[in-house]
Specification:
By secondary structure, the protein is an all-alpha fold. About 80% of the residues lie in helices and about 0% in strands. The protein has a domain at about 40-150: Four Helix Bundle (Hemerythrin (Met), subunit A), CATH 1.20.120. It is built from four helices and no strands. The protein is rod-shaped, with a radius of gyration of 27 Å.
C-alpha cells in the first residue's frame, strides 16, 4: 500500500466518522426541536383555552348576577355552564404554583358571592381574578418566548 493509498484510506475514514457524527448530531437536534415545538404549541393552546374559560366564567357570572334571570329557564343552563367552567379552570391550573393557587381560590369563592349584598366583594374578586389571570398569561407567554428562542425547557 502506497502513501497515496494510505492518505485516501485515512480521508475516507475521517469522512465516514464525520458523516456518522453529523447524522447522529442532526438526529439529536431534530428530536430536541420537535419536542420543544410540541411543548411550546401545547403551552400556547393551554394559555388560550384557559383564557377563554376564565373569560366565559367571568362573563356568565356577571350575566347571572346582574340580569336577574333567577327562576327563568336559562338560569339552569348558565348555572350548569358556570359549574363546568369552575371545575375545568381548576383542572387546568398547577396545584403547586402560587399564582395558580390564588386563581383557583377565587374561582371557588366567586360563585359563593352571588347575593346582591355581596356585589362589591364579588366585583372585587372578579377584578382580582382577571388581574391574576393576566399575570399568569404574561408569565406563561414569557416562557413560550424563551423556549422558542433558546430551546430551553428548564424552569428556574
Amino acid at each position: 500500500m502506497s502513501d497515496k493509498d494510505a492518505i485516501y484510506a485515512i480521508g475516507l475514514g475521517v469522512t465516514l466518522v464525520l458523516g456518522i457524527w453529523n447524522l447522529w448530531h442532526n438526529h439529536k437536534t431534530t428530536r430536541k426541536n420537535n419536542f420543544i415545538n410540541t411543548v411550546t404549541n401545547q403551552r400556547i393552546q393551554w394559555i388560550e383555552q384557559l383564557r377563554q374559560n376564565i373569560a366565559t366564567f367571568l362573563g356568565l357570572t356577571h350575566t347571572w348576577c346582574e340580569s336577574k334571570i333567577e327562576g327563568k329557564p336559562e338560569e339552569i343552563e348558565i348555572l350548569k355552564e358556570l359549574d363546568r367552567l369552575r371545575h375545568l379552570i381548576q383542572l387546568r391550573l398547577n396545584a403547586d404554583a402560587t399564582l395558580d393557587k390564588k386563581i383557583a381560590a377565587l374561582v371557588r369563592k366567586i360563585p359563593d358571592l352571588t347575593q346582591d349584598s355581596q356585589q362589591p366583594e364579588r366585583k372585587s374578586a372578579m377584578n382580582e381574578l382577571s388581574s391574576l389571570s393576566q399575570e399568569l398569561f404574561k408569565e406563561e407567554w414569557e416562557k413560550v418566548k424563551k423556549e422558542s428562542k433558546d430551546g430551553d425547557l428548564n424552569e428556574k
